[in-house]
Amino acid sequence: MGNIIEATETRHPQLGGKAGALAALQDAGVLIPPWFVVSPQAFSPKADLLARGGILQYRAEDLMEDAVREDIERAIAQLCPHGELVAVRSSAIEEDSAEHSFAGQLESFLFVPPAEVPQKVVEVWKSGFSDRVLAYCRERNLGAPQAPAVLVQRMVNPEVAGVAFGADPVSGRRGVAIVSAVYGLGTALVSGECDADTYEVDRRGNILKRAIARKTTAHHSGENGAGVVATPVAEDRANQSALGDDRIGAVAKLVRQLGQHFHRPQDIEWAIADDKLYLLQSRPITSLTTLPDPDGALNLWDNSNIAESYGGVTTPLTFSFARRAYEEVYKQFCKLMGVPRETIAQNRVTFSRMLGLIRGRVYYNLLSWYRVLATLPGFTVNRRFMEQMMGVKEPLSEEILAQIQPPSSPNRLQDALRLSGTIVGLFVNYFRLPANIKRFYLRLDRALNTPLPAPPKSLRADELAAYYRDLEHQLLTRWDAPLVNDFFAMIFYGVLRKLTENWCGDGEGTLQNDLISGEGGMISAEPAKRVKEMAEIARENSPLPALLCEGSLGEILRGIKQWPQFREKYEEYLAKFGDRCMDELKLESSTLHDDPLPLLRAVGHLSRSAAKHQPPPTDAPLSPRCAAEAKVKEALHSHKLRQILFAWVLKNARNRVRDRENLRFERTRLFGRVRRIFLEIGKRFYAEELLAETRDIFYLEVNEILGYIEGTSTTTNLKGLVALRQQEFATYQDSPPPGDRFETRGIVYLGNPFSAPLPNLTLNGETLPQKTGDSHQGLGCCPGIVRGKVQVVSNPKNAVLESGSILVAERTDPGWIMLFPAASGLLVERGSLLSHSAIVAREMGIPAIVSLAGVTQWLTDGDWVEMDGSSGIVRKIPPEL
User: Fold this and answer.
1) Which of 359, 685, 726, 786 has the CA that lies 20 to 30 A from 756?
2) Which residues contact 342 (CB under 8 A, 6 or more apart)?
3) What is the per-residue pLDDT for 613?
4) Measured distance CA(754)–CA(359) in Å, rounded
5) Tell me, what DSSP letter sits at residue 802?
6) Helices and strands (H, E) in the chain, number of each type
7) Rounded distance, CA 182 to CA 199, Å?
8) What is the CA radius of gyration of the chain?
9) Alpha helix segments (H runs only) across 374-460
10) How many C-beta neighbours within 10 Å does residue 616 have?
11) Are 197 and 241 in contact (CB under 8 A)?
12) 3-class DSSP state for residue 364?
């Protein structure tokens, strides 16, 4: 009988999805009602009718040949020797697959008498080409539908039946099985005719929850061969559980067994008859791919001020380099601070997850940061200082913090010794820090100036890889001074802020900013000063401003030879700050070495000002630092001990914040050298036809590049890998960015929306006022009240800032410094009190406010505002004010 596939032919290629699943489970010993399948080939002689699209107008007797009908009748006689009723259902090739369930698309008939089976088989087969199936295939780009196989299966007359899910299809909980049960036929549950009992069962078989419905009994009516009716049951049974605990456990065990067999959670129909548990149908749960598991591991992502360093989409090379650097340097930091080696080893996974990449954008994995901080003493205090330094707007809940804090061991003496060792490490590093910073500068200079066998442009790929390995060994694993300095900057700045609030009555929380401003010796402010110097020289040579503003790069470079003084200043700037650029820590960013035109344009436009740029008119005193010091002196004049302690904290805060910014510049130098190494490797790979373009190197990870050179790579098709990633990252560029802060559960990239909004923004436990009408509140960074016209800049590369305008930006980094000399004020959407824009603004005396959520949408070019750099309030005003 070639038209009939028996249940014993479990490997037959034409069983289709539904019957194929039953066959596989039958082999695994699952109890299934007897069945057979009518092959799609039984209808193949009628394929010409299908091609003409006229199949639905033909009668069953026209579509089924006598030989096929006879085969079906013989098979049904064997299946139902006593005239038992059967179910006739489709079993298409793609039906009940993980990707496409085809649920409800094809016909299905229950309680079919044997005599009507041939006709119902044809009806099911015809439904495989219905308008709704054709539309379903078009919507999912599945191509033309194929003829389905047809499953014929003996009906059972159950006492209890229902459905079960190997995972919760609504919440996404993979560890919970859902069992639903009704008296009688389970089809009444699926159709909604009867309410069902529902049970939640965990992985150990424990029943977590029961929802008992008032039930009726569903049974076959006998009308037209397929009727189902619901009739009342005895009052004492209506509110009882349809299943005992043993049977609930058996159904949950069955659905989990099926999930293990098919390697994905299943949605099944089951029935209990004659005290036997039958499986009627099994298919994958298709909704889980869009749902995270709420019981999965929690991760908290926050881009806070890291967006200042890694804004927008970041390439795989940059992320892999940055993630590795963060991992190594924070391990080293904990060693320096006296954290026991076994504690560091226990947190090795934590160190490897300091950063994450979500839709191509870099985020802090905040729980990892808190766990690292929890290895140090004073976690409760230090975490608030860390949140302040990182610009974290929403502190962790106490519930999560309780899980992060390391528990005390039963050995109190051992705990005390460890704590003592870490405290000693803190003191040792504090006293050694100035000397360590000097040694770090020497080591950095030595590493970056190490003689090479040939100029970098002449080195082979393997020599470049060895050069990178040497830099990594010398610097990335010995980044001690910047790390320790950052930690003490966080501590002393945080303590200074507390002292100004508690001892000096600073209600606005900005006095500490004034106290650390104007320290001098900060390299981040130097580029702006040099730009102003070049603009002064250009202004004194009348043809030069026009050349800088309008000439091509080639024309400018040839033309400035006429002005040796300007050319000398320009070349000195490039030599020292050529690696500073927008997104300077992203290896794929073009630097001023690659394209110096933005620098030359900025100088030209500044030089065209009608007069030398003067400090902006402000209602603040000429010297905010002097005024702040006077306020502190008055508040502490009768407290000698407080004066001494305050002076010590202030001195350390000033030194550490200054050194923090200067050491960040050294990081820029290192990243610039790494950038050039990988660009040279990209050129070698391009020359060997391993890459389609030189800059394709940025779509490979560090270990993939080095592995290809050194023989440890698992993928050698670099062009294919790059093309795959470029396609994926292009979708990230074109799609809306994730939220600034959100949670994920379980598998990070599965089902999580990356967009959970925060109901309220807070800082240090206090709610920040939100934008309301004509005013907006942020964090004041540098004092001064300025009234002026705003200019919103999204990219500083080709921007021309009108002198005296208030610069408005989503974020700033060292690449924006060329615009600062022309700005009378600074409004930034992101950032913290210790971000680059805040520090440089204070050093240059430019009134500034950061953490102004949504300010780039709230303000447009030409709006007039009044900004108060102390209180952080911005207010729209009429131009005449």
Assistant:
1) 726
2) none
3) 45
4) 9
5) P
6) 30, 27
7) 12
8) 36
9) 379-390, 398-404, 412-448
10) 19
11) yes
12) strand
Quickly count: other Cβ atoms within 10 Å of residue 12's Cβ: 16
The residues, any chain, with a CB within 8 Å of residue 417's CB and separated by 6 or more, are: none
Output the pLDDT for position 126: 80
- Give the list of residues 6+ apart from residue 874 with CB closer than 8 angstroms, or none: 775, 776, 777, 778, 827, 849, 852, 855, 865, 866, 867, 868
**Per the structure block, which two tokens stand in for 784?**
């001064």
For 589, the token pair is 């960013």
* DSSP β-bridge partners for residue 536: none
The Cα diameter of the chain in Å comes to 113
Q: How far apart are CA 517 and CA 657, in angstroms?
A: 10
Nearest-angstrom CA–CA distance, 680 and 457? 7
Q: Which residues pair with 363 in a beta bridge?
A: 356
Q: Which amino acid is at 579?
A: D
Are residues 251 and 243 in contact, defined by beta-carbon separation less than 8 angstroms? yes
CB neighbour list of residue 14: distance below 8 Å, 6 or more residues apart: 5, 37, 39, 40, 41, 149
Return d(Cα 328, Cα 344) in angstroms, integer: 11
Contact predicate 831/837, CB 8 Å: yes
8 Å CB contact between 40 and 106: no
- Residue 157 to residue 184: CA distance in whole angstroms: 7
DSSP string, 224-283: TTT-EEEE---HHHHTS-SS-HHHHHHHHHHHHHHHHHHTS-EEEEEEEETTEEEEEEEE
pTM for the structure as a whole: 0.80
CA 401 to chain CA centroid, nearest Å: 22
C-alpha 214/C-alpha 230 separation (Å) is 12
pLDDT the model gives residue 409: 55
Give me the count of residues in the chain. Answer: 881
Alpha-carbon gap, residue 774 to 772, rounded angstroms: 6
Contacts of 243 (CB under 8 A, 6+ apart): 160, 179, 181, 197, 199, 251
Sign, CA torsion 339/343/348/349: negative
User: Mean pLDDT per 10-residue run, the chain (881 residues)?
Assistant: 74 79 81 90 58 49 75 92 91 59 69 92 82 70 73 90 94 95 72 78 95 72 55 67 94 95 92 93 87 92 84 95 91 85 90 96 92 79 70 72 64 66 82 93 89 88 95 82 89 91 85 83 85 92 91 94 95 91 89 90 82 45 78 92 95 93 89 94 97 98 98 96 97 90 93 69 44 77 89 85 90 82 90 78 86 90 92 88 61
How far apart CA 514 and CA 85 sit, in angstroms, is: 88
Write down the pLDDT at residue 821. Answer: 86
Shortest CA distance to 33 belongs to which of 152, 117, 114, 154? 154
CB 876 within 8 A of CB 806: no
Residue 330, C-beta contacts closer than 8 angstroms, at least 6 positions apart: 351, 354, 372, 483
Cβ proximity of 94 and 164 under 8 Å:
no
For strands 741-745 and 228-231, give the pairing: unpaired
| CB contact at 8 A, 286 and 101 | yes
* CB contact at 8 A, 545 and 608: yes
Compute the distance between CA of residue 843 and CA of residue 524 in angstroms, rounded to an integer.
Answer: 9
Q: Which of 867, 843, 866 is nearest to 513 (CA)?
A: 843
How far apart are alpha carbons 592 and 553 in whole angstroms? 12
418-434 burial, b at 16+ Cβ within 10 Å, e below that, comes to: beeebeebbeebeeebe
> Are 471 and 447 a contacting pair, CB within 8 Å?
yes
Contact between residue 103 and residue 94 where contact means Cβ atoms under 8 Å apart? no
Contacts of 451 (CB under 8 A, 6+ apart): none
Query: Residues 6 or more apart from 763 whose CB is under 8 A from it?
Result: 387, 388, 393, 779, 851
Query: pLDDT value at position 52?
Result: 40
- Rounded to the nearest 10 degrees, the angle between the axes of helix 379-390 and helix 480-502 is 100
